[in-house]
């Protein structure tokens, strides 16, 4: 049975002008032959992702969403730059192929990369993969190990010393996401003021451990080898990558982590298979990371609380586009309920990790 991630038909309103795209591809990527076909990967709520085929060549195209509110969160040139820098030293990165800011092609900047064909885990793990609890545990450990491997790269050595500002990173994130949440808040959204005030009052000092952080490191951004699902062969969605505090990245990962023993209400926002038998708990994730970095992580409830709040901010920004009619994607309608659940979870996280 084929468990690889598949593209499907393009959603209404998100079509691509194939004639202009085909001309661009032939001009900028050598060796392309055969007719052009375009499909869309249906998952994801941010940048739009398409499968591009020409002959036997498969590529992935990334462009900003329609009706973007937060333009700085969809910087195609930045995403392309980090892929170019990481590819020689980090085997999980797709090969970047071409980038353009020529609006005559598609009306927006976009880039292309080689497709890494593999399995992407989403809400459930298919029984056909035959992952025992022992194998599940090992896969989750690999999740932490690869994230730490990214954090440990020498970003200055590969030319990313100006890719972010590690000094004051935590403070900028708290202030920035607080401002973005307030700007994107709709009348039906919680105000988050208690959480934002607590985060501002409890920020840790700058860490001496700085590195490349993905900022959306989770299972549905990881590609698994179809022949060995315990092997991670690719990492996608680098749009929010920067240089900063790796524990902030870990906290953002935990923001998605819904365990099997969490409340029934919290289970409603689960989008990943973090509840299955053998899965690491949030505390086990942190313990695994501590073992890799060789030190105890202090104030984990701050990082976890921030991860929940930032996730709410992302969801609210997307929901804002739906609320104001900037997109017709019906998936976005339900995000307001996720924001409301995340508000409760973030207030609980203040009490302890």
Could you explain the architecture of this structure?
The protein has 353 residues and is of the alpha+beta class. The chain has 2 domains: 18-114, Phosphorylase Kinase, domain 1 (2-Layer Sandwich), CATH 3.30.200.20; 127-350, Aminoglycoside phosphotransferase (APH), C-terminal lobe (Aminoglycoside 3'-phosphotransferase, Chain: A, domain 2, Alpha-Beta Complex), CATH 3.90.1200.10. The chain has 11 helices and 9 strands. The strands form 3 sheets. It has a 5-stranded antiparallel sheet, sandwiched between helices. Strands 6-9 form a two-stranded antiparallel sheet. The longest helix is centred in the last third of the chain and has 24 residues, at 300-323. It is globular.
Brief sketch in words of this structure:
The chain folds into two domains: 18-114, 2-Layer Sandwich (Phosphorylase Kinase, domain 1), CATH 3.30.200; 127-350, Alpha-Beta Complex (Aminoglycoside 3'-phosphotransferase, Chain: A, domain 2).
CATH domain class name of the largest domain: Alpha Beta
Count the beta strands.
9
Provide the CATH architecture of the largest domain: Alpha-Beta Complex
Determine the fraction of residues in helical runs and give it as a percent range: 25-40%
Kindly provide the radius of gyration, computed on alpha-carbon positions and rounded to a whole number of angstroms. 20 Å
Q: Strand count, sense and closure of the main sheet?
A: 5 strands, antiparallel
Strand content: 5-15%
How far is the N terminus from the C terminus? 40 Å
Shape: globular
List the uncertain runs.
Answer: none
Strand ordering within the main sheet: 1-2-3-5-4
Order of helices and strands: HEEEHEHEHHHEEEEHHHHH
Mean pLDDT comes to: 92
CATH H-level superfamily title of the largest domain: Aminoglycoside phosphotransferase (APH), C-terminal lobe
Question: Within the CATH hierarchy, at the fold level, what is the topology of the largest domain?
Answer: Aminoglycoside 3'-phosphotransferase, Chain: A, domain 2
> In total, how many domains does the architecture comprise?
2
Enumerate how many helices there are, as a single number: 11
Give the structural class. Answer: alpha+beta
């Amino acid at each position: 049975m084929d468990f690889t991630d598949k593209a499907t038909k393009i959603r209404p309103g998100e079509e691509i002008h194939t004639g202009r795209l085909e001309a661009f591809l032939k001009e900028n990527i050598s060796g392309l032959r055969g007719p052009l076909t375009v499909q869309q990967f249906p998952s994801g709520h941010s940048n739009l992702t398409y499968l591009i085929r020409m002959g036997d060549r498969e590529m992935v195209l990334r462009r900003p969403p329609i009706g973007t509110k937060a333009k700085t969160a969809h910087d195609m040139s930045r995403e392309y730059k980090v892929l170019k820098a990481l590819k020689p030293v980090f085997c999980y990165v797709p090969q970047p192929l071409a980038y353009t800011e020529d609006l005559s092609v598609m009306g927006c900047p976009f880039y292309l990369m080689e497709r890494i064909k593999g399995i992407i885990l989403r809400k459930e793990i298919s029984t056909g993969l035959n992952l025992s609890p022992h194998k599940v545990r090992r896969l989750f450990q690999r999740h932490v190990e690869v994230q730490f491997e990214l954090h440990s790269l020498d970003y200055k050595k590969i030319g990313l010393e100006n890719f972010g500002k590690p000094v004051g990173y935590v403070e900028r994130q708290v202030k920035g996401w607080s401002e973005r949440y307030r700007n994107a808040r709709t009348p039906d959204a919680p105000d988050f003021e208690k959480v934002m005030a607590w985060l501002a009052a409890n920020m840790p000092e700058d860490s001496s451990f700085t590195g490349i952080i993905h900022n959306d490191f989770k299972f549905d951004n990881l590609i698994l080898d179809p022949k060995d699902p315990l092997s991670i062969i690719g990492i996608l969605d680098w749009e929010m990558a920067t240089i900063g505090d790796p524990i902030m990245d870990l906290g953002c990962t935990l923001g998605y982590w819904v365990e099997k023993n969490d409340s029934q209400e919290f289970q409603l926002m689960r989008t990943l298979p973090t509840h299955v038998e053998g899965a690491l708990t949030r505390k086990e994730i942190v313990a695994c990371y501590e073992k890799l970095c060789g030190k105890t992580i202090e104030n984990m409830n701050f990082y976890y609380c921030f991860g929940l709040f930032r996730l709410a901010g992302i969801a609210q920004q997307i929901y804002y586009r739906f609320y104001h009619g900037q997109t017709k994607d019906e998936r976005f309608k339900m995000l307001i309920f996720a924001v409301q659940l995340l508000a409760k979870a973030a207030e609980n996280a203040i009490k302890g990790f």
